[in-house]
Amino acid sequence: MPKVKSSKRGGKPPEGYTKIEPTISKLVQKLKDAQTQTEKHSVWKIIQINHQISRYVYTMHYNRKLIDKPLYEWLLKQKYVDANLIAKWKKQGYEKLCCLNCIRKEDNNFGSSCICRVPKQDLSDDKPVECVKCGCKGCSSTD
User: Fold this and answer.
1) Structural domain of residue 46, as residue ranges?
2) pLDDT tens string 15-24
């Protein structure tokens, strides 16, 4: 999750940051707003916005090749993105992972993954699935 401070510890951003700065700034502002909310599902919003920021940077760097390596590493160092989540997205079967909490086996019943990781065709009933940790409605790679 990005640090929400006004000081710049990492110095001047690398070249190319001005292209993505409006989107990053907008998402960071949404994150700040979500952190000050006290409603029931505000933690879900924080996790979802963190996912949005990380997915945006991941897509811009790995899929669209619009962010070069120095800028990507600077964003990681500044903690704008979740490096562990991006590392999981690179592995087969985790391309759509919503958050790291859903794959932590010690936090789930029976030492398994979260219900949102189960492919929808493998569920016995047609009730909508919603993760209690992050509000995800399904992040299995086969969905």
Assistant:
1) 17-90
2) 999 999 999 9
